Amino acid sequence: MVFLDFEQPLEKLYEQLNKIQQVGQEGELDVEPMIKELETKIKNKRKEIYGNLSGWQKVQLSRHPERPYTLYYIEQMCRKFVELHGDRYYKDDKAIVGGLGSLDGQSVMIIGHQKGVNTKMRQYRNFGMANPEGYRKALRLMKMAERFSIPVVCLIDTPGAYPGLEAEERGQAEAIARNLFEMAQLKVPIVCVVIGEGASGGAIGIGLGDRVYMMENTWYSVISPESCSSILWRSWDYKEQAAEALKLTADHMHSFGIIDGIIKEPLGGAHSAPEDMAKILKRHIKKAIAELQEMSTDELLEARIQKYSSIGVYDEVAPTEEGQ
Amino acid sequence: MGWFKRLKDGIQTATRNKKDTPEGLWYQCKSCKQTSTMKELKENHFKCPFCNYHVRIGSYDYFDLIYDGNYKILFDEYQSKDFLEFKDLKPYTERLASARKKNDVTDAITVATGKVNRKPLTIAAMDFKFIGGSMGSVVGERIARAIDYAIENRTPFMIISKSGGARMMESAFSLMQMAKTSAKLTQLAKAKLPYFSFLTDPTTGGVTASFAMLGDVNFAEPKALIGFAGPRVIKETIKRDLPEGFQTSEFLLDHGFLDFIVDRSEMKERIADLLYFFDTKD
Q1: Cβ distance of A174 and B87 shorter than 8 Å
Q2: Quick one: closest CA in B to A245, which residue?
């Protein structure tokens, strides 16, 4: 088990538990009551810690090395799945995966950022940072889904679009912009879920939809707390403050009306009970698709444009002679 | 006269003293370090008379250079507010107040409508002096309203981009303006009105990754910095030096993301040409 810094009290309790269990195995001592007591303690401690997470702690959870990624959820949710590769222009991006799956008989096009599960795979997946061909593959799959009236599901989990030299040469900005433009008018339901990190343009490049949800311990922001700290505080040391200032948690996003709902995670985070998490996620996605399928295409597109047109907070100042 | 007055009347700004152009009598070129007079610079479309460096200018300067005299400012009444109570080293409210005080524009984008060689055009022009030309809710809203105006009045639409990207102090709201502006542009496209994206120095981040790359025609001023990630970030990521001319207008033209590069002295004529070609009277 990997413990985050704020989980230290839990780690200690688990150590105690392990020792007692060992003692129990070795001797005739009845350790059962002590184990029970410790397990209750662990449960309460976990509730205590998880009931009051800061913005930065949620950022840490969203990056937990054991957190499930897109392909895990696909495998759990879909009895059948065929992965589709390539953007047909340049290559197959490994940081964005996609393909046709079936959610209890409902065909869906599932697209998502993919991070690697170990050091080697993390490099292979480029840490979930897509290049332009990743966004173009996503768009190709979405346009195909549109032709066959298949709903689109996007799972978002990226520290950002890849800031590389070749990414710029091949038009990272154009690829993201094109996706936003096309997704705004795609004639099938689009359901997006932030399952981990929702960093900036890299996230929204597959994040425009009719329903956008965030899992409980994820974040969505215009910039990562670290980069925000380095630009605005001119130092890398203010990431905690930046995370608070950016108001990037699911609770914040929901209260702002930017997302449509929060998907609860099992106590201890998605990684503590990944199978349960996948079931909860599937339930939400199925429900959203069913609701959206009730709407006509015109209604769907009208509502989608309306939804995005109304995002923004500003003052309306009456013109006066004096100015401000 | 307060600037709100101008909103009603439509204005002639040619003689106005602009705060976002170099002040004083002399101008020393940032590129070639040669000195010219402000008068020479202005007469040369704010380009260095020696090396043709395109000096960064403000929204009103572009309107003055592009429109046939009069134009009308629209949607200036929508103003940024600090709804997240964002504070880094400085509170956002202070940044806003000082940006408003220092500048003749009221946010990082200004919308105007007028005529170019007698053809109507609605323009939203960004201004780098206003918090780095950053895109927050107001930039998104003014663009959205400019698009509605263009559709209602059947005018083509142009955005002049000049921005460091999204405005961090509005967090996810500024990120969502990428989706909002792109979604609004689809309505313009459906209305069969042309959208010109004119990129100037610098155009980066969320602005490039939304409306700036979505023009029916994309064009830029010479040697402008245009990109998604900033050069410093890329350099730190790839851990080697960036090639000469990386992320310039010329680089983007070469890689197929711009239709052409236009010198500021030919800008008006080129825009007028486009308006002529696209004016097919339905």
Answers
A1: no
A2: B86
Within an 8 Å CB–CB cutoff, is residue B178 touching chain A?
yes
Looking at the structure, tell me whether residues A41 and A185 fall in a common domain. no
Question: CA A165 to CA B236: how far, in whole Å?
Answer: 11
Q: Is residue A319 one of the residues assigned to a domain?
A: no
Q: Is the pTM of this model over 0.90?
A: yes
A324, B133, B143 from B4: Cα distances, Å: 9, 21, 19
| Residue A87, CA distances (Å) to A97, A109, A140, B209 in order | 11, 15, 7, 19
Specify the number of domains making up chain A: 2
Residues of chain A contacting B172 with CB distance shorter than 8 Å: 220-222, 246-248, 252-253, 256, 258
The full length of chain A comes to 324
Question: Is residue A149 in a domain?
Answer: yes
What residue numbers bound the domain in which A259 lies? Answer: 60-309
Query: CA-CA distance, A16 to A38, in Å (whole number)?
Result: 8
Range B57-277 has CATH code 3.90.226.10: yes
A126 HSE (CA, 13 A, CB side): 21
Contact list in B for residue A200 (CB cut-off 8 A) is: 166, 175, 206
Q: Return averaged pLDDT per consecutive 10 residues of chain A, 324 residues in all.
A: 91 92 82 90 93 94 96 97 98 98 97 97 97 98 98 98 96 98 98 97 98 98 94 92 96 97 96 97 98 98 98 86 39
Q: Are A126 and A158 in contact (CB under 8 A)?
A: no
